[in-house]
Amino acid sequence: MTDNHDIAALIRTIPDFPKPGIQFRDITTLLLDPTGFAATVDRLAAPYVGTVDLVAAIEARGFIFGAAVAQALGVGLVLIRKDGKLPGVTVGVDYALEYGTDRVEMHEDAMVPGARVLLIDDLIATGGTALAAIRLVRQAKGEVVAAAFVIDLPDLGGAARIAEAGVAAHALVAFEGD
User: What is the predicted pLDDT for the residue at 98?
Assistant: First the structure.
């Protein structure tokens, strides 16, 4: 594995899933390759060594990379989940979808004020969920140092929206189109 193009080659594209016209970027083939998976984790973690206190991972595929990155960085892991999935007392934020709203939550005691947080997910598309996660961390008085993704779909504008929110976004590979 010499560059991010190698990682891109390990990501399978499934046309017309979950509906016609969508090019689904499937990370399961990347996860099956131990060298590729390790390189992905190393490349996600490397820019943030010594700069963060926590990794916040977005449900569900973000948990895979978030847990590994947290371990690589020697920091704790915060789970950001859909409404009603966490036991105990939670805090949450609602966010708009194309038709309706959704909610993300984390445990109320997941971080101390001032914690420096790296947000992780497998893919950034429109940015709605990641922006909600940023709002949630900020509501808990944490500082989102950066948001890192394996895949960016730049045509959908999510990374740009995150940057507009004042958070640096970093992705290992980009796939044009949706």
Answer: 72
